[in-house]
Write a structure and sequence with these properties.
Order of helices and strands: EHHEHH
Structural class: mainly alpha
Largest sheet: 2 strands, antiparallel
Strand content: 5-15%
Shape: globular
Distance between the termini: 22 Å
Strand order of the largest sheet: 1-2
Oligomer: single chain
Radius of gyration: 12 Å
Number of helices: 4
Length: 89
């Protein structure tokens, strides 16, 4: 899968430059986020769970790439469009 970017985005989801392997805590947070997500109309708690993941990712000394997060979200059951709505919010 190619790197997904948008204007003004270097393909990084959060954090700083460096190693981009997803840590176990980040994977678990994404799994729980998708498992509890109201896919038809996300609720404030859905957004909060994703923001909690973002805060976790930002606190790491490395970044998660969009092309690393997107496949996890789609594998967990979100469509590409639904996943991008959260990633690029």
């Amino acid at each position: 899968m190619g790197r997904l970017t948008r204007p003004g985005c270097d393909g990084r989801f959060a954090g700083s430059k460096g190693d981009t392997d997803m840590d176990a805590t980040g994977r678990d947070m994404l799994h729980k986020f998708v498992g509890a997500l109201n896919k038809g109309a996300p609720h404030p708690l859905d957004w909060q769970r994703f923001y909690d993941f973002t805060i976790h990712a930002h606190g790491l000394k490395r970044a998660y790439r969009v092309d690393e997060v997107l496949p996890i979200l789609t594998k967990e059951g979100l469509t590409g469009e639904e996943a991008r709505r959260f990633i690029y919010a």
